[in-house]
Design a protein that fits this description.
This protein is α+β, with helices and mostly antiparallel strands. Helix content is about 40%, strand content about 10%. The protein contains eleven helices and five strands; from the N terminus they run ααααααββαβββαααα. A five-stranded mixed β-sheet has the order 2-1-5-3-4, sandwiched between helices. A hairpin with a 2-residue loop joins β3 and β4. The radius of gyration is 49 Å and the shape is elongated. The protein starts with 13 loop residues before the first helix and ends with a helix.
């Protein structure tokens, strides 16, 4: 075998130092204690401090079972979480509304101001006051009085012109307002039950109905009074009870107070000098 060139005993050959001439690696020496704690050593244990993991839902539940007070707190937290989730699902815009409420209110106000007025123009004189409205082409006079002008004394009964509960005066003539289109009354003077009294003084027919107890449930009373006022103002109608009954036959009282209604009308006639 060929002798290595570094055969000299005084040679500092690294191959001799590591024993690599014969093809064998020298045994590795165990790591020193100092190397174990070196931050760059592959053998050093991980001594870094990690934050504790947050408790899981299972841990909360286990703690709640062990502690009755904790169980109550746990159930309350579940209820609050469920309520918050349901609120978020049903009210997707709640956060925007609460955080920017003023902007939403201003936007709504601006949108309302900029929106065009819908409906056809209509001008009426209602109970002595001139009213300018915009109504749908198919709006009924009864609905305009009740819904737009808030004159709810006029009642909606049958809605077919058969019961008389919706009676009002248009230019002094009694009509069933449920059968009349509002746009047909441009410029007309309309009187409802709210327009009969003069301040705190009742109309004579109203006072007579009160004194003769000419009502029971009161739903038909406003229509009965408006028709009675028109009957007393119509000179073509006789003064006898039969003529009054015939003239008032378009007003139905389901409570059956007809006798008292007739007495109230005849009493009002005498008060009005008729």
């Amino acid at each position: 075998m060929k002798e290595h060139a570094c055969h000299s005993p005084h040679s500092s050959c690294s191959s001799h130092a590591h024993g690599s001439h014969d093809g064998h690696q020298p045994p590795q020496s165990p790591p020193s204690p100092d190397s174990l704690h070196s931050p760059h050593s592959p053998h050093s244990p991980d001594t870094s401090v990690h934050p504790p993991s947050p408790p899981t839902a299972a841990a909360h539940a286990a703690a709640a079972v062990a502690d009755p007070a904790g169980r109550r707190r746990f159930l309350k937290s579940l209820g609050a979480s469920s309520l918050a989730g349901a609120s978020a699902a049903w009210l997707p815009n709640a956060h925007a509304q609460t955080t920017d409420g003023n902007a939403i209110a201003n936007t709504s106000a601006n949108a309302g101001a900029a929106a065009p007025v819908e409906g056809e123009p209509l001008t009426l004189t209602v109970n002595g006051q001139r009213r300018a409205l915009h109504v749908a082409p198919n709006a009924i006079l009864l609905d305009v009085l009740r819904d737009q002008l808030q004159l709810t004394g006029t009642k909606k009964g049958c809605d077919h012109g058969q019961c008389g509960a919706c009676t009002v005066h248009v230019n002094g003539i009694s009509i069933n307002s449920c059968l009349s289109l509002a746009l047909m009354h441009e410029g007309d003077a309309v009187t409802t039950i709210e327009g009969l009294a003069r301040g705190d003084t009742l109309h004579p027919v109203q006072a007579a109905f009160w004194e003769h107890d000419a009502y029971q449930c009161g739903y038909c009373t406003s229509g009965q009074i408006m028709s009675a006022v028109a009957v007393l103002a119509d000179k073509r109608i006789g003064h006898d009870d039969a003529a009054v009954r015939e003239a008032m036959s378009g007003n139905i009282c389901r409570c059956g107070a007809y006798r008292n209604i007739l007495a109230a009308i005849q009493d009002a006639r005498s008060r009005m000098g008729g």
